[in-house]
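Tutorial handout. Part one gives the primary structure; part two gives the three-dimensional structure as tokens.
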Amino acid sequence: MDQKGFFQVDYSKSDFIEVKIGMLGYGFMGQVHSNAFIKVPFSFSDPVARPVLLAICGRNQKKVEDTARRFGYKEYCLDWQLLAKDPRIDIFDNCTPDDWHYLPSIVAMENGKHVICEKPLSLKLEEAFQMAQKARETKIKTMCCYNYRFLPAVRFAHQLIKQGILGKIYQFRAKYLQQQGHNPFEHIEKVWYAHGTKSGILMGIGSHIIDMAHFLIGEITAVSGLRKTYNQMRKDCSGKSNPVSADECTIAILEFKNGAIGTIESSGVSTGRKNYQGWEINGSKGSIVFDLEDLNHLQVYSTDANPPEIQGFSNVLVTDSEHPLQINYLPSGHNQGWEYGHVHALHHFLDCVVNDKPVEPLGASFQDGYRVQVVIEAINQSSARGKRVEIKEFGRDI
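Part two.
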């Protein structure tokens, strides 16, 4: 105790295991992941580790230094290979644009780093396969960050399905809709799926609901897909016309190994939709409905409700201690926000690293990320051929 009655905190008594983080990328997702790591120690009553933000890397020195300072990174660098090979780093977090997911993740795995990679795993199917294969060979922990698995309502839905509350699953229908490209005269620089990596809408956001289908329903065996590019030319800010090959809207019918069928729809031209994701699952004994714009609720219908005349959808507020993935400092009824999907995801990965637990089935491993890429390839090929295709034609065993 000092002269004024204040006690010094003795950090040497901390039971936290420190895990050193190397972040590649200072943009939107790099900042989201950094924020999530910072929140881990006080979001859980017994966090598995204390993430140490050791170093962040990016190409623009001014921007990466600013991000490092704001989030409290100890160091920054401009060469991703320094980060991927640094022996001090335990977890390499790849939050680069889609076309930079492959090589840095491979090099990090070769240097013994546990690797988190933003989705999609890669823009190329063969690269995604090599990433999954390298993860299997090195036996390190990898996670493709499909963060929506880690929203409490989604995890609650997963539990209900596993418990058999819905009975036999019949149908799954999902959509992920945005409006960025709805205006034909919008400059291409402002249409994310057509500019930069030109990932397309199916790869960019449709991948999320493909992973959701895998997570909640199971293996997809066949697809019938249709993709559309409405605005095949867009002007840039200088007035130059640019060809657009990226898909703007994609719809697919899915067939599952367990006999269920489904539909997925992803769009970048849904006027009025900012970031709308929703899905519904119908079973022989009940149904569940999720809406990302109301992410703390899960609508649940059960035929077991008695008497029959009061059967109906219950709008369950998934914020009680009995529900999954609760934050210790939030009392019952206090909502979690979008960013907490990443907080839970990264805490799960820390747990897997520190306690040598498998990332699957709750998290998406690189193998899961590859399976999503296989479905994307199948949907694209189905659209090109104008017919139904089987998934096994495009994927390989890992």
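Part three, for discussion. Residues 366-385 form the longest helix (20 residues). The mean pLDDT is 95.
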